[in-house]
Amino acid sequence: QPDTPHSTMVPPCNNGEESGTGGGGTSSQLHHPEPARQPPQLTIAYGSETGVAQDAALTLYNFARSHDEVGIVALETAADCLPSNDLRQQLLIAACSTTGQGDPPANMRKFWRLAMSRRLTQGCLHGNGSSQSANNPHGNGDSATARLRFCLIGFGDSSYLQYNFVAKKLHRRLCLLGANSACPLALANDQDELGPDQAFLPFAETVSALLTDTFSVRCACVGSCLDAPLPPLYRVEAIAAEKSTDSTHTTAANQVVVVVVGADGPRLPPPETGYQLARIVANKRVTAEDHFQDTRLITLSPAPTSAESPSPTLWSPFQPGDVLQVLPSNSQSAVSSLLSTLSHLDPETRLRVSQSDPNFPPPPDLPPAGPTLRWLLTNYFDISCVPRRSFFETLRRIAMGIGDEVATTTEEDSSRLDMEIERLGEFVRDVDELAAYCNRPRRTVAETLRDFPVSASRIRLSRLFD
Known about the structure:
CATH superfamily of the largest domain: Flavodoxin domain
Keywords: Flavoprotein
Radius of gyration: 25 Å
Strand content: 15-25%
Largest sheet: 7 strands, mixed
Distance between the termini: 26 Å
Protein name: Flavodoxin-like domain-containing protein
Domain Flavodoxin-like: 42-208
Shape: globular
Number of domains: 2
Oligomer: single chain
Organism: Macrostomum lignano
Number of helices: 12
Pfam families: Flavodoxin_1
CATH architecture of the largest domain: 3-Layer(aba) Sandwich
């Protein structure tokens, strides 16, 4: 089941008390003078299978970018908050999807098992703030010092029986354990006309208001975040005087692209993880050419694990539940077309990608020798997908040169650039315009960049992964 919004809002649980976003007790608490306190501990987490929930978490991370303690992590690494010895002013903002028939995404299963463990007793996340104390003079138990507080949005598809099952069950479980839902549970439905943004944008506004009003965090709202400088996610540098000889081999019969394993191949998981490398030796269509379904019989054989050890390893017998991970490639025609749009960048220069933001480790699956732009567009970036709203927000920020040094443009290009920036802003602010431009006609990333050539010409190496 793909991650995706449904305009359903489930009332927040309050365990017999008012939630952190309303109620007389909370209003009194917000304006009550108290000693200087440390900024709230804030974690933005996601559990994502196809990247929709991850993209939502990244957008929320940008909302809270002025906060020193924000961390964007996979939900399985957020297990430290269940339970914690020090729950003072903890806030967890989570975006999680539902996959398959009500299953959690792979990168949150560890967290899911811990949250559902019977060893966790009811109320264990309530903390020590239920009674009156110096830091909580009202003693209402709803203070940020009293318990773990959380905001949760789920992404699902109502065409499946277990619609948003993971988010609903996780919300109930956290409330049972004593955590406080600081805002209503938002349920996003992929079948909605406007896609995930119809439920996500109101949720993001609620979260940004919560951070600003309750925790005194300088946080951008949906509109103002467009003009705020954001540092690149990664540090991308050209490796001097080293050109690539990237090569892919295409079989004429089946058009199967095989990437050579070696310096220019992907960084594969180590054998101890259970992955086994395979090579496609046959790709045969088993349905008639005039049949509406293209069903294939794909034959695999053991493949060498590296250029240094060309002999294939022996396979273990297949077991029910084994997963086939396909490493896809974009067509050479699509890559060449996009490279012509990005003609200001050298497609053959090797790049070094290193960590810039402590919350974003370097991508783990890049070639050891360093990727090239051509390799990234062929094997790494999905240039054939329909861009999300965050893509247009980032492209507009790049076009405006916010936080970057950009080259001067001619008068003609400057006029065109102003038009492109205005149009990109419309897509960010108006989900109907966005749906009409790219969602309904299924316009791809490559096609979008061709439609905004001056903005695309301002993309620098440091912004490729943004």
